[in-house]
Amino acid sequence: MSKDRGQVIFFENGAVLWVTEIREIPGGFSGEVMNGGWYLVYQDGVVRAHDWRDPDGDPVTQEASTITHQVPVESGSGRDYNEVINWAKAKIQKGNLDV
Q1: How far is Cα 26 from Cα 13, in angstroms, rounded to an integer?
Q2: Which of 6, 16, 78, 90 is least enclosed, having the fewest CB within 10 Å?
Q3: CB of 10 closer than 8 Å to CB of 23
Q4: In terms of Cα–Cα distance, which of 29, 9, 4 is closest to 19?
Q5: Nearest to 9 by CA among 67, 82, 89, 92
Q6: What is the C-alpha to C-alpha distance for residues 17 and 19, in angstroms, rounded to an integer?
Q7: DSSP-based three-state secondary structure for 41
Q8: Contact assessment for residue 11 and residue 19, using Cβ atoms and an 8 Å cutoff
Q9: pLDDT tens for the 99 residues of the chain, in order
Q10: Cβ(8)–Cβ(88) under 8 Å?
C-alpha cells in the first residue's frame, strides 16, 4: 500500500503549496503544508495559516484566494518540496493533468 503524498495546490495569488494529510471540512479542506511547516485550512475561499503545534487555534494569517490547480503528487515526483513543486508545474505546463 502506497502512502498518500498529497497535492500541490496553486492559488491565484501566486502561492504554491504542497499539502499532505488532506481532510475534507465543511466548505473546504485542511492539511499540513510541506513547504512551510504550518497547517492549512482552506474554507470558503480563504486560506488560513495555523501554527502546526496548534492547528485548531486562531490563524496566524489569512487571505482570500481561489485555487487554480490541484495536482495529486505521484510516486517518483521528487523527495523534497522544490522537486515536487517543479514536477507539478511541469505537469501543468504540459497540460498533463487528469484532475
Answers
A1: 23
A2: 90
A3: no
A4: 9
A5: 67
A6: 6
A7: strand
A8: no
A9: 346 789 999 999 999 999 999 999 999 999 999 998 899 999 999 999 998 788 788 888 889 999 999 999 988 887 889 999 999 999 999 886 654
A10: yes
Q: Residue 27: what residue type?
A: G
What pTM value is reported for the model?
0.86
Cα–Cα distance measured from residue 74 to residue 5, given in angstroms and rounded to the nearest whole number: 7
Cβ–Cβ < 8 Å for 23, 35:
no
Residue (of 48, 19, 54, 23) closest to 35 by Cα position? 19
Residue pair 77/5 in contact (Cβ under 8 Å)? The answer is yes
Segment (H or E) for 47: strand 46-51
The identity of residue 21, as a single letter, is E
* CA distances (Å), origin 85, targets 17, 73, 79: 8, 9, 10
